[in-house]
Amino acid sequence: MIKSSAEYKKKLALLTKYDQFYYDYSEPKISDYEYDKLKNELLKFEEINKEFNFVKSKVGYAPSVKFSKVKHSEKMLSLDNAFDIEDVKNFIKKIRNYLSLRNNDELLELIAEPKIDGISASLIYQKGNLTKGLSRGDGEFGEDITENLLTIQEIPKKINIKNFPEIFEVRGEVYISKKDFEKIKDQFANPRNAAAGSLRQKDSKNTSKIPLKFFAYSTILKNQENFQCQSDFLNFLKKCNFKINELSKVINNINDLENYYNHLEKIRSSLNYDIDGIVYKINDFNLQKRLGNLSNSPRWAIAHKFSAEKAYSIIKDIEIQVGRTGALTPVAKIEPVTVGGVVVSNATLHNEDEIKKKDIRINDTVKIQRAGDVIPQVVEVDLSKRKDNSKPYIFPLKCPCGNDTIKEFNVITKKYDSVRRCPDISYDCPYIAKEKLKHFISKDAINIDGLGKKVIDHFWDLNFIKYPSDIYNLNYDKIKILDGWGDLSVNNLKKAVDKSRDITLEKFVFSLGIRHIGQENAKIISSYFKSINTFFKLFDKTYLNNELTNLKEIDGIGDTQIKALENFFKNKKNKNIVSLLMKELRIKNFEIITQGIFANKTLMFTGGFEKMSRSESKSVTEAQGGKVLGSISKKLDYLVVGNSKPTKSKIEKAKELKIEIINENKWYELLNR
Ligand code: IVH
Fold first, then answer.
1. Is 303 near ligand 1, meaning CB less than 6 Å away?
2. Is 218 in the pocket of ligand 1 (CB under 6 A)?
3. Domain with CATH 2.40.50.140 in the chain
4. How far is the CA of 164 from the centre of ligand 1 (A)?
5. What is the 3 state secondary structure string of 248-267?
6. CB under 8 Å, gap of 24 or more: what pairs does 524-532 form?
7. Which residues partner with 168 through β-bridges?
8. Which fold has domain 430-500?
9. Which string of DSSP letters, residue by residue, matches 323-385?
10. Is 499 a catalytic residue?
11. Does the Cβ of 223 fall within 6 Å of ligand 1?
């Protein structure tokens, strides 16, 4: 909640900046979900503090400097939103009141139309010829995008109909089909952004490169005079060769309205275009006229939005992904559907047991959920949509690499894991090997700027890399000529790769991706072995057996870690891989820093940090002699809580143990004392 006008102004400036990026450069800076959240916060503040009304009175965004500004013959309005059926009932109630329709039985005809998630445009025909086309702009003034609109095949350029009005204005939605979006999906977050980007190209030749389509759905008051109602008007548009949305339907009662909404919500993913809700309009033009408009939206229409977190889709296939630890994760490949501004085409099914429990099958209609940055999940199956010939999904018993899979027995829970795994512990399974490379280059491991997961995939497919040491022997001449690479990016990569050659022992141990050896354990192991040479000796059988007994005694190392270390170091191929890698790196001996600002202090970090990342904050603390713990214990001196999403249970526990809780700023103050 915004608490002061200063905060309001700060957030308003942010919104304006996001608008500019979105509208002028077609380059959204935040997700639709975050944008709506920010906007709602501002609107709430304006609701209480009436002297502020910037957001409330704003429709869209002022026209871009790229196109000339033209005043709309009639303001291009926005729509008020309904988020549930109660909001819709309220909308109808208000209309009945406004029109003094006291008798509940009196019919109020509505037309329900899919709300196309595109960009609105206004087309002006003079004597049947398309002479001008405008974007919405700020609602009052649009941008002259005639040339760009002329490239859209579905927009009639000439209308040959007897008695066609001298001047006729058609408004509708420019959009891109999901099929066409597939081809350019890497460049845009969702189809709407792609359509906006294409439509706002300065050079119409670029617009024609991305195929756009158009649904017509409205006009200006003056042109409405020849029609009784919206449904008649839509039929006329069809006669004029416009594309209208064939799913539009005249509806007479709230039950049918609800059914229509539910039906469209379910078939939404199978449509070849994105819709983000349903628009309900009063069908009768006379009533529309009587109802009139509020400042930004008509009283006679409302948009019933689909959820920004949940949607229905159809499972086209179930793919098995193999993780770094060999875990086989089933992933549902679904018909793409835009949820909260993000196109979702994959949803995790977790594991074999989860599929069995929910009886999830290929071709099922499922409800999916996407919340925040979490991977979308399949929540439930809509059994009413299941076909008679559907068969249960049989989970593969083999890894895609051909290995038989296993389910591990958990000694603590005394149960078999629900996760099926490929048992490979070296680099033989190519699926595991590729994931191990991704772990190797990750931020907390070797950390190579400019070498992310996507690049690993690409280099892997080209056979440039197989083992971690290959990263230090890349053929840069071959990379230079790849799409998306050039002298500059290759140079930067080279520099980053070289920089990563200097590494601490603990990061090195962590980067190997030994099962059950996370950052904490890597640190414990490094502090025990001190140098890479002693650590490497573990590949010697007798030494290994001896040391495993010793390691068992160390706090933090349990049976699981001992077994994992044994498996790793028993393997000849791993020895080879590690020794090749060691030749490329300069691995620093483990050093305990006992002096510094945090000497003798024990800290723990939770949540996201702003001044630097959480990992960097930890490293800085350790470089200053502090000890960083991974779990709350009495030994802790400070729990440092970051601003974004700290773990509540950790804070609670710290309070219980009376541990001092400080925020990031306080920690930073201590650091700079
Ligand atoms: S009628 C006076 N009908 O939704 C209101 N709008 O969020 C005129 N939209 O600005 C709009 N599908 O860009 C209408 N079937 C439909 C629509 C539709 C998509 C867009 C339109 C509008 C926005 C409001």
1. yes
2. yes
3. 310-385
4. 24
5. CEEECCHHHHHHHHHHHHHH
6. 524/554, 524/555, 524/556, 524/557, 525/551, 525/557, 526/590, 527/590, 527/592, 528/554, 529/505, 529/590, 530/505, 530/589, 530/590, 531/505, 531/589, 531/590, 532/505, 532/508, 532/582, 532/587, 532/589
7. 125
8. DNA polymerase; domain 1 (1.10.150)
9. -TT-BEEEEEEEEEEEETTEEEEEEE--SHHHHHHHT--TT-EEEEE--TTSPPEEEEE-GGG
10. no
11. no
Residue nearest to atom 12 of ligand 1 (CA): 115
Least confident of 11-15, 213-217, 332-336, 554-558: 554-558
CATH 1.10.150.20 fits 504-588, yes or no: yes
pTM greater than 0.85 (yes/no): no
| 16-20, 90-94, 108-112, 533-537: range with lowest mean pLDDT | 16-20
Q: 143 CB less than 6 Å from ligand 1? A: no
Distance CA 181, CA 172 (A): 20
Q: CATH 3.30.470.30: does it fit domain 70-305?
A: yes
Q: Is 72 touching ligand 1 by the criterion CB < 6 Å?
A: no
CA 485 / ligand 1 centre spacing (Å) = 42
CATH topology of domain 310-385: OB fold (Dihydrolipoamide Acetyltransferase, E2P) (2.40.50)
The active-site residue, picked from 115, 266, 367, 618, is 115
Lowest mean pLDDT among 230-244, 263-277, 628-642: 628-642
CATH architecture group of domain 602-671:
3-Layer(aba) Sandwich (3.40)
Q: Where in the chain is the domain with CATH 3.40.50.10190?
A: 602-671
- Name the segment(s) of the chain with CATH classification 1.10.287.610: 5-57
Residues of the chain with CATH 1.10.150.20: 430-500, 504-588
Residue from 32, 136, 217, 306 whose mutation best tests the ligand 1 pocket (most atoms within 8 A of CB): 217
In a mutational test of the pocket of ligand 1, which residue from 58, 73, 79, 110 has the highest number of ligand atoms less than 8 Å from its CB?
79
Mean pLDDT of 499-524: 94
Which residue owns the Cα nearest ligand 1 atom 21? 120
Give 192-251 pLDDT, tens digit per residue: 989 998 898 888 888 888 889 999 999 999 999 999 999 999 999 999 999 999 999 999
**Going by CATH, does the domain composed of 5-57 fall within 1.10.287.610?**
yes
Residue intervals of the chain classified under CATH 3.30.470.30 are 70-305
- In angstroms, what is the span from residue 77 Cα to ligand 1's centroid? 8
Does residue 113 line the site of ligand 1, with CB under 6 A? yes
78 touches ligand 1 (CB under 6 Å) = yes
